[in-house]
Design brief:
Elements (H helix, E strand, L loop, with lengths): L12 H22 L1 E4 L2 E4 L2 H8 L1 H34 L5 H9 L6 H15 L6 H27 L2 H9 L1
Length: 170
């Protein structure tokens, strides 16, 4: 009987396959379709797709609105997350890890379940379907707030307090 021996290097094989199948190959397909066009059954290299995108007012307004929503959501997340992370990092509470866990816990719940719950809540309040951009910003802030709190908290927790004292002397 042959004994199979696994090494730590072999543990990366499933992750490498997943990365190749669901990240690298789709990105290569996007690049292929972005720089080619089909005319008369022949595939040719072209910048026509980019020219079409950057000359269409509808597509540019959609891009601008996407950037606006992203910047607004990021700013709101930062305005909420930084004070929360700072208060948690500087507090002398014995159970501050429990408070941090309450903010981080939504990351453990399925994304679809969280969005569905938020959708039901917005429907109950009466905002669903009437304030589409507001709903998008609320949803993005709700989803990405834990991802901003945790890195800020870990950075502020490790920050040397002597820097803060020196800054307050200036």
């Amino acid at each position: 009987m042959v004994k199979v021996h696994f090494s730590r290097k072999q543990l990366c094989i499933p992750y490498g396959l997943f990365l190749a199948l669901f990240v690298v190959i789709p990105m290569l397909l996007i690049l292929f379709y972005a720089f080619t066009e089909t005319a008369d059954g022949a595939i040719r290299f072209s910048f026509a797709n980019f020219l079409n995108f950057f000359t269409s007012k509808a597509k540019l307004s959609t891009l601008l609105m996407s950037f606006t929503v992203a910047i607004l959501s990021t700013a709101i997340c930062l305005v909420i997350a930084y004070p929360v992370a700072y208060i948690l990092a500087r507090s002398k509470l014995r159970r501050k890890s429990v408070l941090l866990m309450l903010f981080i816990l939504p990351m453990w719940i399925n994304f679809v379940l969280r969005i569905t719950a938020l959708r039901e809540l917005l429907d109950l309040i009466g905002l669903l379907g009437t304030q589409n951009y507001l709903n998008t910003v609320i949803g993005m802030v709700y989803d990405f707030l834990p991802f901003m709190i945790l890195p800020l908290y870990t950075t502020l927790e490790k920050l040397d307090t002597s820097y803060l004292e020196a800054a307050s002397d200036l």
